[in-house]
Amino acid sequence: MITPPLHESLNASVIIHNQTAHNNMPISIPVRSIGDKEQVSTAIVYCEANFGAIDGKTANGLVRHSERYKILSVIDSEMVGFDAGMVLDDKPNAIPTCRDLAGALALAGTVPDYFIYGMAPSSGMLSIHERSLILEAMGHGMNIVNGLHEFLNDDPLFEAACAENKVKIIDVRKPRRDYYRRARRTESPRLFVVVFHSSW
Predict the structure, then answer these.
(1) Is 25 within the bounds of a domain?
(2) How far is Cα 9 from Cα 173, in angstroms, rounded to an integer?
(3) Is 64 within the bounds of a domain?
(4) What are 104-133's pLDDT values in tens digits?
(5) Domain tally for the chain?
(6) Which of 84, 103, 141, 143 has a C-alpha 20 to 30 A away from that of 183?
(7) Residue 162 within any structural domain of the chain
């Protein structure tokens, strides 16, 4: 295995080179637009041990294309040193992969606007480590984008962290309060879908 060269201007935990990390097929998943302001915000995407895999579909999609976010780096300790574009499509895009949040912040040189949780684990829930990591990102002053079914805005701990650090959490999957009212008023055709799960 060839060890990638250190880049002089980067933290030791951030190494960049252009080799394909693995042979997983790239996945293209559309990413829902978030928020109301039409502006580009900087972001770090967390995708530990899943970047380039199916459970990293959010991170994969954001790295390939995002009109809302400028992706500064991807956190995945198993992909440290690889260009994110090379991992997905064998095409460099100058988005590096980092070992951890400290390395990503050192690389950014400033506090990014957002920390995006870019995975879809089968549990749909954050691990204890991930909860601590998100709280750490909030402590640095980063807003959070959460795509899980676990709504962090409903958690008193995260609610308190928002107030303390003057940041916000966007629970992407949480319907807007006026969602159903707006749906009833639409003139477009509507389809009611019921999904049955084998464990029900």
Answers:
(1) no
(2) 38
(3) yes
(4) 999 999 999 999 999 998 888 999 999 999
(5) 1
(6) 143
(7) yes
